[in-house]
Amino acid sequence: MSPSGETVLTVSGVGKHFRGLRALDGVDLRVAEGEILGVIGPNGAGKTTLFNVVCGALAPDEGRVEFGGRDVTGASPDRIARAGMVRTFQLMRPFGSMTVLENVALAAQHRRQPPHRLRARSMDVVERVGLGEWAHRGATELPTAGLKRLELARALAMRPRVLLLDEVLAGLVPAEREPVLDLLAALREEDGTTLLFIEHIMAAVMRLSDRVLVLDQGRVLAAGTAAEVTSDPRVIEAYLGEEPDDAGD
Ligand SMILES: Nc1ncnc2c1ncn2[C@@H]1O[C@H](COP(=O)(O)OP(=O)(O)OP(=O)(O)O)[C@@H](O)[C@H]1O
């Protein structure tokens, strides 16, 4: 399933500052239903702040966020998640005293459903991310790659229409990245899920993105296809030219 053309998320003139620092400055963005948007830029460019504003963790100082045609600016993360826009975190914080399945079921409860359906749905998601064999083991026993999958499973349990992924590949070795990329592609193809993902690994950005947004110092430096932005001299100067050599590894 490719982008339908219908806009699902609109960010208009969003600004956010922390004391004197402008973390976001006049950011505009439109995302189509079913689109996969990569978000790149140097450290401190404002990528995570943009996700935080979109998902309600931070209220913007200026501008507006619309999701599914509704103004959600400043709405709580919980309300936005219930409406179908869900994010993953770079730092995974599972409940250590619970099993993998219980952690996922807890997230699934956000979408109020009968207990039997909740359990079945949670198990489906655990299997989909490849953690079936770990379902009844303690979440803290998981290695890094497993924790990443658990984080993804918790987000998927909430049945997102829009899923925001913050460096979901960080900490994974190349062989562990492939199945995650396949899963993300399948989410769009099979479920029509819209994906926004912050990523420093350019090979993943090139492979997955329909479009790439480049942030630099809180502003949109460029937006376009991966081929367009990676050949843009401003992007090369601000980001790609000085990128650490993890681009393809
Ligand atoms: N809660 C906060 N309080 C103060 N400054 C903050 C806060 N959150 C972010 N910043 C600052 O805002 C700027 C943008 O940070 P942000 O985390 O959004 O960048 P990023 O593009 O996600 O960077 P990275 O790639 O390193 O994760 C940075 O200068 C950062 O130090």
From TrEMBL:
<keyword id="KW-0067">ATP-binding</keyword>
<dbReference type="InterPro" id="IPR027417">
    <property type="entry name" value="P-loop_NTPase"/>
</dbReference>
<dbReference type="InterPro" id="IPR051120">
    <property type="entry name" value="ABC_AA/LPS_Transport"/>
</dbReference>
<dbReference type="Pfam" id="PF12399">
    <property type="entry name" value="BCA_ABC_TP_C"/>
</dbReference>
<dbReference type="InterPro" id="IPR032823">
    <property type="entry name" value="BCA_ABC_TP_C"/>
</dbReference>
<keyword id="KW-0547">Nucleotide-binding</keyword>
<dbReference type="GO" id="GO:0005524">
    <property type="term" value="F:ATP binding"/>
</dbReference>
<keyword id="KW-0813">Transport</keyword>
<dbReference type="GO" id="GO:0016887">
    <property type="term" value="F:ATP hydrolysis activity"/>
</dbReference>
<feature type="domain" description="ABC transporter">
    <location>
        <begin position="9"/>
        <end position="242"/>
    </location>
</feature>
<dbReference type="GO" id="GO:0005886">
    <property type="term" value="C:plasma membrane"/>
</dbReference>
<dbReference type="Pfam" id="PF00005">
    <property type="entry name" value="ABC_tran"/>
</dbReference>
<protein>
    <submittedName>
        <fullName>Branched-chain amino acid transport system ATP-binding protein</fullName>
    </submittedName>
</protein>
<dbReference type="InterPro" id="IPR003439">
    <property type="entry name" value="ABC_transporter-like_ATP-bd"/>
</dbReference>
<dbReference type="InterPro" id="IPR003593">
    <property type="entry name" value="AAA+_ATPase"/>
</dbReference>
